[in-house]
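<instruction>
Derive structure tokens from the sequence

<record> Sequence and structure tokens follow
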Amino acid sequence: MLHEKYTNKDAIMEEGEGIILSGSEKASPSRVNPKFKYEVLRVPGGESLIHCFQCGTCTSDCPVARFSDKYRPRSIIRMAQLGLKDRVLDSDFLWLCASCFTCTDRCPQGVEVASVIRALKNMAAMEGRIPQAFKILLGNLIKTGYIYEIPESRIKRRETLQLPPLPKTNVESLTKSLQNLDIKRFLEGLPQKSSEVRVWV
């Protein structure tokens, strides 16, 4: 096969009563949501999901997949196509995408793989399914204007080394920009009502 290196690692096949994910792991029919792919198609960026025929080009060219055995764009797309909503939206590997668009540039079917993955991340965010690390980063941004909290010791060290002070942040302006996005609900991980859905990532 064209991309033999990845064919066994990220194989997802339908078999009998359930879906074989990889190795001997199996998803029961009760965990399959056949309408999920249509939900993805309605989210901006998810429109090309059904065009993927699972050639594996996205995974073989992905720079993140080279260094992570868990991150396989092909598998993410296939799980979405098969209706494995909870498995996709609850996964940490969904958030590993570097958004470099290599997969999109190389896809022979014109599937915008990075956009589909972004759509899936947006769907996860809308339902409050976000890794804690991202919530912490957003909390820091709102509190300090920086994604990472800058410890006082680092500021003093900069002064000792006679480095210029860090740029001032405008937390008020940032807060004003974000006020309509209901960030508090986002940070607490509460799902959004469908009428309040916003694109996050």
